[in-house]
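Before drawing any conclusions, I looked closely at one protein's amino acid sequence and its backbone structure tokens, quoted below without any editing.
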Amino acid sequence: MRLSTVILPIHRWAEGQKIWRRAEGLGFHAAYTYDHLSWRSFRDGPWFGAIPTLTAAAEVTQSMRLGTLVTSPNFRHPVTLAKELITLDDVSGGRITLGIGAGGNGFDATALGQEAWTPKERADRFGEFVALLDRLLTEDAVTERGTFYSADEARNVPGCVQRPRLPFAVAATGPRGLRLAARYGQAWVTTGDPKLYEEGTPEQSVAALRGQVEKLGKACAESGRDVAGLDKILLTGFTPDRARPLESVDAFVDFAGRHRELGFTELVIHWPIADSDFAADQTVFEKIATEAAAQLG
């Protein structure tokens, strides 16, 4: 099981670069950032763009993988996103993973002046978005006429450093999203069952995640794919456990062990942010990064 972190883009780069360097020094497999225009309780504070942040992070790190958790169609178009991703993959020397999801009803949903999409439209757009982005990142020139997204001889030479393209980590829990993960994903991402966050128990969460993994297996089988070949990523902090796994190395190892048994291959923990839902003791966090990761093997 791999251990990664997510660093929210809230720091001016003079300070932020120290965090990304430290994450690599601690041995994290990957460091991700959120791809939003603003987000929840951080809306009225500093919040920087994901792609420029990752480009800068690529310049101050050497081997750690980098990526988004997650990008969505809410304010992105496949043609422009593909160009940015190919550039980012080149700058990083082929270290980028694109976490991608359908988006939701948060601030991103209306920031461009549009009405928030219905769940059905989000799913429809997501399916078209992923399929077109896959083509744009693997073909030199793409022409496509879609219901929501189109391309007219969109050129993407020389393509990604990673071949045939950079990996997709598809966030999904519903049947349509899981089918997309099975077809296009090199990894699958979940945060658990959001309905359990407020009043559920850790045991209920594990059961819900087991059900999600089983559904992913069925989606892969329908696509003629072995689910074992798909990485399974849990973005922590949104299950009923909340921050408790970060209270000690032993607590984290116990949490990680229970989720490794479900088939998860990567856990992502939030870099501590004081006075927020992601507050944690920095010393304990760094011990988890070094000692717990060694115990997980």
